[in-house]
């Protein structure tokens, strides 16, 4: 997960709030000999003081809440226990190791991130039950959770709010390609010199193995299908290999089998995982790559509808009032257009879960029979995505792609086990995911209101060097493994 705090401490000093004079002698800031306190820089003291006050004071309307303060307050609010206390204990333990000269604000902010990520990764049983429920029913409402899970509404609501406020649980929207005249495509590039970028590229995943692997998903207007194939041919001239596949929306799964309730940690039992690979199962079915027809009903789209759709793609639970303010549309129009989009199934709900403790991922591509052998084992991993692939050049060739999240240090172990068991899974290519980025389709930018159709030609695609894009994609602590 990218750092949550990038706070400009000079802004905190002047605009936080008026502290009592007596607080200048606060034990927090006392310059005691032999303690971490005398090693704090002025900015570090400010950040620490702000954090502890936001945690202690209930009436924050007394303070001038800047965007930075709101961000810290959100962390404090969703932290289980006392972040201030845990932070001071951690500073004390570091100082006790000796030879500490100075502790800067950057050190404090980095430590807050570390403690916060570890804290929100600890899940209560009710939160695990909620995650299971929403994965199986992405359209479920908060009011329906009690009937679905057996957890009382008040408890389910608290669990939902904590998961959502901490960023672990989000419900976004995905384009229904068949409804909106798109084709969902996956490009797999091996040792590419160049890769695609542009508004139709929705995700890029890197696997830095012996040969660099890139997995790019795109939503291509069906009318541009032939033109896109020409772009693929050009890419093949600068890569060891490029294959293009139609990609189904796929399915996602959540499994808590490897979550240790005692230690509140995720740890894959590698022997158990290995043994599951040897279990025989029937061929895996993960949906269809049904392609759209050119007369899909996109003529009903308009500017207002597209504006609302853009917000639903980012946040499927967007409030009418918030969308109204952002789009400058009346609430009645937002409500009506939102209802149309949902009822027409133009945008579908999708659950996205990012747990900071799950920092790595594995990507595997196999034929359907091999994928069936992998399915049970991969489904035991915390989060997995399964999707059917159909080769664009040779539609008779079908494969399955599987992406799974793992705790830090275990992705390589999973890949090693898969390779060691290659006698059981011969038709398999698997790699550790090292970086990736995902962005929703900008439906406003790519729709032509005059022709009432998607804009698309080769000018909408840039060809950029692999090295440039790879440097720009910072490794996230929480990788998104959903390609839809």
Give the helix/strand layout:
Blueprint: H1 9-15, H2 42-56, H3 67-78, H4 83-96, H5 105-120, H6 125-136, H7 145-149, H8 153-165, E1 169-175, E2 182-190, E3 194-197, E4 201-208, E5 212-221, H9 225-236, E6 241-247, E7 251-254, E8 259-260, E9 265-266, H10 270-276, H11 303-314, H12 320-327, H13 331-343, E10 347-353, E11 360-367, H14 368-379, E12 383-391, E13 398-406, H15 411-420, E14 428-433, E15 435-438, E16 447-448, E17 453-454, E18 462-465, H16 466-472
Antiparallel strand pairs: 1-10, 2-5, 2-6, 3-18, 4-5, 4-15, 6-12, 7-12, 8-9, 11-13, 11-14, 12-13, 16-17
What labels would you give this structure?
484 residues; alpha+beta; 18 strands; globular
Protein model, in words:
By secondary structure, the chain is of the alpha+beta class. The protein has four domains: about 10-15 and about 25-120, no CATH class; about 125-165; about 175-290 and about 355-470, no CATH class; about 305-345. Helix content is about 35%, strand content about 20%. The protein has 16 helices and 18 strands. The protein has helices at about 10-15, 40-55, 65-80, 85-95, 105-120, 125-135, 145-150, 155-165, 225-235, 270-275, 305-315, 320-325, 330-345, 370-380, 410-420, 465-470; strands spanning about 170-175, 180-190, 195, 200-210, 210-220, 240-245, 250-255, 260, 265, 345-355, 360-365, 385-390, 400-405, 430-435, 435-440, 445-450, 455, 460-465. The strands form five sheets. Strands 2, 4, 5, 6, 7, 11, 12, 13, 14 and 15 form a ten-stranded antiparallel β-sheet that branches. A two-stranded antiparallel sheet has the order 1-10. Strands 3-18 form a two-stranded antiparallel sheet. A hairpin with a 4-residue loop joins strand 16 and strand 17 (about 455). The longest helix has 16 residues, at about 105-120. It is globular. It starts with 8 loop residues before the first helix and ends in a 12-residue tail after the last helix. Mean pLDDT is about 85; it is low at about 15-35.
